[in-house]
Amino acid sequence: ALLSSADAEKTPGYWNKGARRRLELALALQPAAQRAKNIILFMGDGMGLSTMSAARIYQGQLSGGSGEENILAMETFPHVALAKVSGAVLGGTVLLPLLEIPLNSPCFQTYTIDRQVPDSAGTGTAYLCGVKANAKTLGLSGAAVYGKCRTAFGNEVDSILHRARLAGKSVGIVTTTRVQHASPGAAYAHSASRSWYADANMPKEALRDGCKDIAYQLVHNTDINVILGGGRMYMTPTRTPDPEYPEDPDQNGIRKDGQDLIAEWLSAKKVVCQGRGGARYVWDKKGLDAVEDDSVSHLMGLFEPKDMRYELNRNTSTDPSIVEMTEKAIRILRRNPNGFFLFVEDEIDHGHHSGRAKQALMEAVMLDRAVARAGELTSPTDTLTVVTADHSHVFTFGGSTPRGNSIFGLAPKKAKDKRAYTSILYGNGPGYSIHDGVRPAASLPAAEDKDYRQQAAVPLETETHSGEDVVVLAQGPMAHLFHGVQEQHYIAHAMAYAACLEPYAAEPGCRAARRASHGTQCSPQPLLALLALCMAALTVG
C-alpha cells in the first residue's frame, strides 16, 4: 500500500531515497564552460537568507502545502555562493576556474567602503559596476564623496549593462520601484547622491556645478532598450498632470527645467536606428499588453508616479506584475542575435522597512515567479541567470513553531510576559509597541493581515538593513564561477567574463567579433556611438 507523505517521512527509506537522488544529480553536474549569449540578473532588494526561507514556506502554504518542503524556482539553480556584508580586508590571492585574479582578500566581502552594513546604492555599484563605492553614491568609485557633485567628475564607473549595450547586446531594466531608484540607477547613472531623482531633488550647488539628475541620465547615458517600473513624476515638467491621477496634484511632474524626458526619449529613439524597430511609451497594463514584441526595439513603461504598489495592493487591471514585465522584456530583448542583458529587481526591501512582513514575503514570492517564467522563456545552454540580494534585514522567524504553522502565525508558547507573540519578529522598526510598560499580545487573525506590523525589539521609524551574508544562485554558462564566499563586486566581473564583456572581451573563448571600444570611464555621448553602429548596420544591410 502507498504511504501518505506524512507517513512516508517517518521511514528512513524516504530520506535515504531523496538523498541518493540528490547525490546522483550532484555527481552528474558538470561546469558549463561555454560563453553566455544572454545574462539575466535578478536582484531581490533586501532578500536575506531568512527572507528566502520564510518566502519558501509562504509560497508552499499559498499552494496548499505545509510549506517547509516547498522549493523555490531559484533554489533549483545548481551553483550557490554567499556574499558577505561585513568584514576586514586581508592579504591573499583567489584562484577561480579559468581565471586567476589576485585579490586583497582570502574570501569575498560585500561591505561598502564606508559602511559595515550597506545601502542599495553602494551595493548596486558593486554588483553592477564591479567596484566598491561609498554608501548613497551611484556609479562612482570610492573617490567620490556623497552629496558632493564635483567629486563625481572623473570618478565614473560603467555598469555591466552599459558595457553589454556597447558590445551590441540589447539591455533592459525591470523594477517594482521607481526606475530612478538606487538599484536600477546603478545600471546607468553616475550620481553623488542616490536621492537626486529629478532636478527638483538636487541642491542648487550641485546644479551650478553641472551635475545631472538620475532621471536625466536615464535617457541620456545609455541606450536602454527596455525600461519598466515606476517613476513618472521625475520625467515631466512641474505641474504636468499624471495620466493615471490627473486630479491629484501630488502626483504631478516635478521637473523645474521644463524638460519632458519621456518625449525626449521617444524622439531620440526615432533618430537612432531609424527603421530598425520602433519605440513605445506606455503607462498602464493595457498599454503594455498592446505592445507587440516584434514591433518595437525600445519600450519604456512607467506605471506609477513613484514606486509601484506592493503586489498585495496592486490593481491587476491597471498595473502589470513583475512576472508580466519580465516576460515582456525578455520577449523584446531576445530578438537581438547578439544576445541581451536584463536586470530585474523586486522591492522586498520596502515591506521590511515598514515592518510589514507579509508585504515583503509576497514580493519575494513574486520575484521567484519571475525567475520561473524567465526560465521558461530562455535556455540554460546560452543564458546565465543569477539571483542575489543587495543586503538583508533584521527579520527573523522562530519560536519552535510546529510543522505547517502559518508563517505569519503565533509561536506555540507564550513569552515570559505571559503574552502571545508571532513567529516573525524584527530586531528594530516601527513594530515596537509598549503601552503602559506592557507589550500587547499578538493575536489571530490580526497577525495574518497584509498590513500587520510584526513586533520589533527597538523603536525606529523604519526598520533597518542587516549585515549578514546574502545568497547568490546561478545557472547556465559559467555559473560555476559563483562558488564559495564571494565579495559582492565580484558578481559583475563573473558576469562580464561569462559574456565576454569588458574588461574580459579578449579572454580565451571569446569571439574576435567587432566591438565598440570602451574604457573604464563613462562614455560621455553613448548615443553617438550607438548611432554610428546603426549607420554601419544600415550600410551593410
From TrEMBL:
CDD domains: ALP (cd16012). Zn(2+) 1 binds at D349, H353. SMART domains: alkPPc. It is found in: Cell membrane. GO terms for cellular component: plasma membrane; side of membrane. Signal peptide: none annotated. InterPro entries: Alkaline_phosphatase, Alkaline_phosphatase_AS, Alkaline_phosphatase_core_sf. Its cofactor is Mg(2+); Zn(2+). Its EC number is 3.1.3.1. Keywords: Cell membrane, Glycoprotein, GPI-anchor, Hydrolase, Lipoprotein, Magnesium, Membrane, Metal-binding, Zinc. Mg(2+) binds at D45, H181, S183, E345. Zn(2+) 2 binds at D45, D390, H391, H465. It catalyses: a phosphate monoester + H2O = an alcohol + phosphate. It is a lipid-anchor; GPI-anchor. The active site is at S120. PROSITE patterns: ALKALINE_PHOSPHATASE (PS00123). GO terms for molecular function: alkaline phosphatase activity; metal ion binding. Binds 1 Mg(2+) ion. PANTHER family: ALKALINE PHOSPHATASE (PTHR11596). Homodimer. Belongs to the alkaline phosphatase family. This is Alkaline phosphatase. It comes from Grantiella picta. The gene is Alpi_1.
